[in-house]
Amino acid sequence: MKNSRIFSLATRNALVYFILFVISLGLIGALIIFNSSREIHNLTEKRLLHNNEIIKLKFEGYFKAIVNDVHQIGDNPSLKEYIYTPNDANLASVEDAFYAMLKNKPNYFQIRLLSTQNKGEELIRVEKKNKEIRKTPKALLQFKNSRDYFQEILKLPLDSIYFSKIDLNREFGKISTPITPTTRIGKKIEGNKNEQFILLVNINLTQLFEELKHTVPKHYELRIFNGNGDYFIHPDYQKEFAFEYGKPSYFQTEFPSIQFNSNDWSKPIIAKNTVNQFSQLNFQRINYALYCDVSANKDDVYASFYEWKNKIILYSSIIAIFFLAIGFLLMRNQNKELGIITQELTTFSENLKPTVLHVDRKDEIGDLARSFEKMSSKITESHQLMLLAKNNAEKANQDKSDFIANMSHEIKNPLQAILGSIEILNQNDKLDEQIPYLNSIQFSTQQLNYMVMDVLDYNKLKNKEITLSPTWNNLHVFCQELINSIQYLADYKKIDLQLLYPEELKQYIYAYDYKRLYQILYNLLTNAIKFTNPAGKVTLQVKAINHNSVRFEVIDNGSGIAPNTLKKILDRNFSSDYSTGSGLGLVIIKDIIELHGSTLKIDSKINVGSKFSFDLKLDRQLLNNLPVPKIDQMNSILIIEDDLEIQNYYAHIFQSAKTEILNSPNELESITETFDFIITDLHFSNTKISVEQYLLNLKERCKPDGLIIVISGTAYISKEKGIKSLLKPIDKNSLQTLMFTHHIGIEYNPIRFGGIEEDYDHDPALIKKAMRLIVPSWEKDIKNLSLALKNQDIKKFKDIQHRLVTNLRRFGLENVIQFIDEISIKMANEKVDDTQLTILLQQYLIELKQYQAAI
């Protein structure tokens, strides 16, 4: 094909352009311009490289001399004598040697000898301040074990040289004046009886930096910076050591396209209006790189050349335009055929069908047409295979989701049946000796349910998608049932398992997330039992920290955790016997505690024992002081459930309400009336109707202001109004609260947070500060309002009402304001029940706290 051409397209174009450009280049002297600019550019690069090499030699020679000095100090006989025989005479000799070094080296301002033991105690410190050299008295010596450089030197082998990061010298945590760029050169020295010492010299880099700045010519610029882009030397002194003042790195702003992931600095880089020559400086610190940049402004380098070049470009442009017009006429015929190919390319991208082009040219256009025909056929075939693979992947993913949903449903149905049966048994007469067994079965079944949910919700927990759902519960009963449920584990190892719960707290109930608190304490207790020797002791201790904070402590006298392992076991990617005990493991427990706004604290000693503790801020009130909504207030309920045991459970808790129970969605056709509440499962073995269509059918059986409650083994979230969901297995209180909340929600608006966000200009910090004042005030007013209602204290009621109105209006709760006004009027003539108002305000209080936590 290639040999059949007489003159190819490339050949014809080359001939035409050659003639045109030869004429143009002959007229404007383009060759001279090119060679001139190239020569200027090469000369600039050589000068930059030369200056860069000088900088490197000075920098590396400076630090080489320092390293020699450190070795010399470390080999000083006086120092060796003091290390092996520490007495006052030898101490004085070493201090004199340090003194002499500081006097002879103007850039050295501090020499210290540290012990690697006894918390990094300073043994000797001689320092230079305001040109005066002082020997530090023993009473003023410090302990340096908390400093980064001390910990880093400990990891180095003996006699190796340590280089610290370059920063500004600080005195007592503040940048010292005058500002002093500093680095520390250290050496680990072996002493008597395998003792080790650290020799440390603090270097003032001011003189070095000034010398480096004066090394480059005046019209050149010097920059020295680290791998984070933090400048130590910069033409603008305000950008030097900006990181010490909490300012961001300026490097990526000046050089956004440069990534220092290579050691090849041989080629200059053009950035904006400068020519830059970069190199890496030899600074002997691991994972810490220093770079040097010598740059020249292109305007200075090419000033005269630019003026001459602009004139040449002007003249050449006029000539080039003339000859380009001629070339344009010659290309018109070729463009027509290229336009046909372009049109086919556009059409192919839309429909992905194979294309056939009838182009018989013997040049590159013909080759392009024929190649495109082959390519379009292959792309079409690949696209069809990709669609097939995509459909298979989507089907596999759907099968996985269906499996998880069905598994959850099959596991949770028996759990719901067990819990329902236990609740029915608890309502009937039973022997005293049966009560502990029923309570234990109920508690353990609930915990089994929570563990099943943990497995299904693991990814949500890992991605911080789990939210807390606090409810009012008796904390003492909860802790006692928890202890009872794991007593068999302790009995098996003959471990003394105890609960220490203060008497003064037993009069209160607390609002907490029952399931999440169980996960935390269950895991900590089972781990404690697992790692406690037989006949040992494990204690769950509950303490009151203040009015609304409770501390939980799990204490054992087991094997303990080594200090070097303590931090590792909290790493999600670390695996050990301790972090893989019962339940979710310490890593996930730590995450759950952090969801509560708290921190897991661990105090452990080898062969002594461990104490795991955390504090939770929990709302509390006196026992039996929380109003409970009554199911009797509901009008009509439709239940759709195919499990007989769960049907019996629903019949038991709704025995005083008008209730209709169906076995399958197929029986909906026999129902003509509408209901206030519809409770339904989503998984039925005898129906294939989609979830969306099923819920649509249910809405036709639900009153306009009614509620559909979906009970499912996996989380189901609907954006449709009037549809809520609960996870299996449900408990009576959760279901009643949801139904009652909806019942009062018919009359009152939900909270709107737009008003307070506008008041504080949508600033999260200001909103959070305001909520810290609003929430406690609201909580206090609810309690006082309920008390005023019970005591028929109209004056107190109106005082509280006056304070509440502002916040109620801010949150868009005008109907609540109207309702409180009606109660105020009724109080003058009759006793008013406070239950509904108190529950409503408490529900709003929970929403406020959830909003506060989410800010």
UniProtKB/TrEMBL annotation:
The protein's matches in CDD domains, at most eight in alphabetical order, are given as: HAMP, HATPase, HisKA
Task: Identify the EC number(s).
Answer: 2.7.13.3
One of the record's GO cellular component terms:
plasma membrane
The record's subcellular locations are: Cell membrane
Instruction: Return the SUPFAM superfamilies for the record.
Output: ATPase domain of HSP90 chaperone/DNA topoisomerase II/histidine kinase, Histidine-containing phosphotransfer domain, HPT domain, Homodimeric domain of signal transducing histidine kinase, Sensory domain-like
Please give the superkingdom of this protein's source: Bacteria
Q: Indicate how the chain sits in the lipid bilayer.
A: Multi-pass membrane protein
> Do you know which Pfam families this protein is assigned to?
HAMP, HATPase_c, HisKA, HK_sensor_dom_bact
Keyword Transmembrane helix found: yes
Using the record's annotation, list all stretches that form the HAMP domain: 357-384
Which UniProt keywords are present, listed alphabetically?
Answer: Cell membrane, Kinase, Membrane, Phosphoprotein, Transferase, Transmembrane, Transmembrane helix, Two-component regulatory system
Indicate the transmembrane segments per the record: 14-34, 312-331
Q: What class of enzyme is it?
A: transferase
Q: Keyword Transcription on this protein?
A: no
Please identify the protein, giving its name as recorded. histidine kinase
Organism equals Putridiphycobacter roseus
